[in-house]
Design goal:
single chain
Length: 94
């Protein structure tokens, strides 16, 4: 669940920052990249329940970020962008 909170949560935050105009859009939405990565990982997972828990964590993160106000996004989008770019490089998402 923790991986979903972190990885999926950053993807969700990145897309929200793009929607709000704080970060530039990439060729593909961050959530779509994260979803594709997780679907590939699920194919090799030995524990189907673990994959479901990752999705649960991501769903929790989405609900939390839906409740954030404009000041949160303005203050945090630069660091969210940097973190997502690190994920893209580390996990070879692009």
């Amino acid at each position: 669940m923790q991986f979903g909170l972190l990885f999926g949560g950053i993807a969700t935050q990145y897309d929200k920052c793009v929607e709000k105009g704080y970060l530039p859009a990439g060729p593909q939405r961050a959530e779509d990249q994260a979803d594709a990565y997780l679907k590939t990982a699920e194919q090799f997972a030995r524990d189907a329940e673990a994959a479901a828990n990752v999705q649960k964590g991501w769903d929790i993160a989405k609900r939390k970020f839906d409740a954030q106000d404009a000041k949160f996004w303005e203050a945090n989008c630069p660091s969210i962008g940097k973190l997502w770019k690190r994920y893209e490089v580390t996990l070879k998402l692009q």
